[in-house]
Amino acid sequence: MNRTAEIARKTKETDINLSINLDGTGKAAINTGVAFFDHMLEQLAKHGVFDLTISCKGDLEIDCHHTVEDTGIALGQAIKQALGDKMGIGRYGHSYVPMDEAMSRVALDLSNRPYLVWNVKFTIDRLGEQMETELFFEFFNALAQAAGITLHVENLY
């Protein structure tokens, strides 16, 4: 089974080239121009054990919104394409993630009924120099919509 996809997405605000191999080893080569976002995407690939390559040129001179949201759309499209008819996979999944003083929970359904429940509050406005915390919602919403995932994300504490 070849569970790979390549997406090229070009808009007025962004130019994205993305490839994914769901049966990879966790290798990532990410360059969106937003350092914390690159780190987050690298961690998704590493811990999800899939290979991910993303190159994004966005209108960062304005802000990070288009880069983050459009990358979410492209990644969602790639996941949906790579999953194909979804034969042989588990439809539902969940995970608890402890990270230092924080605990988060994610549950998903590969239902083709996109929906996002976002129960996350941040105590700061940005991570790193560029990544506004409000953009995490935009990324995961775009990802869920484009991939057809019902996604529940909750930061417990």
The largest pleated sheet is described as:
4 strands, mixed
Q: What is the 3D form?
A: globular
Query: Which series of helices and strands comes N to C?
Result: EEEHEHEEEEEHE
Query: Uncertain spans, ≥5 residues at pLDDT below 50?
Result: none
Instruction: Tell me the structural class.
Output: alpha+beta
Strand content: 35-45%
Termini gap: 40 Å
* SS element count, helices: 3
Helix content: 25-40%
Rounded average pLDDT: 96
Structural notes for this entry:
By secondary structure, the chain is α+β, with helices and mostly antiparallel strands. It is 29% helix and 37% strand. The chain contains three helices and ten strands; from the N terminus they run βββαβαβββββαβ. It has helices at residues 35-48, 65-83, 135-147, and strands at 4-10, 14-21, 28-31, 51-58, 92-99, 102-109, 115-119, 126-127, 131-132, 150-155. Strands 1-2-4-3 form a four-stranded mixed sheet, with helices on one face. It has a four-stranded mixed sheet with strand order 5-6-10-7, covered by helices on one side. Strands 8-9 form a two-stranded antiparallel sheet. β3, α1 (35-48) and β4 form a beta-alpha-beta unit. α2 (65-83) runs parallel beside α3.
